[in-house]
Design goal:
alpha+beta; two-stranded antiparallel sheet; 2 helices; 4 strands; uDENN domain-containing protein; uDENN_dom
Length: 106
């Protein structure tokens, strides 16, 4: 049976907060922060498949991650949590990174 996907990844704000410029720490709202790989399936120690490319979080969230001052308000759609599901196939990866997915790590 063919596999449906090679990896399932969750990207977002990681444990070490850094701005897109590389400055460490929290710098307030309105500042974009580097995305991180938060979790993945299969787990990183699973040897049957190669690991996802190291720059995948930047590919998934190229604009970065931003803090907001207000929390979730069920009456205000702009406060709803956002997710951006994407599917990267081998063909898409080859067209985005013609020299192989190793180029994502540079």
């Amino acid at each position: 049976m063919a596999r449906i996907f090679e990896h399932f990844v969750l990207c977002g704000l990681g444990p070490e907060i850094r701005t897109l410029d590389g400055n460490k720490g929290f710098h307030g709202t309105g500042v974009l922060n580097m995305p991180s790989l938060l979790d993945q399936y299969p787990p990183p120690n699973y040897s049957l498949y190669p690991p996802p490319p190291p720059r995948l979080p930047t590919c998934v969230l190229p604009a970065g991650v931003e803090f907001y001052t207000s929390g979730f308000d069920s009456n205000d759609v702009s406060t709803f949590p956002r997710s951006y599901p994407i599917v990267l196939t081998a063909r898409v990866m080859a067209s985005l990174f013609p020299h192989g997915t190793g180029a994502m790590g540079r």
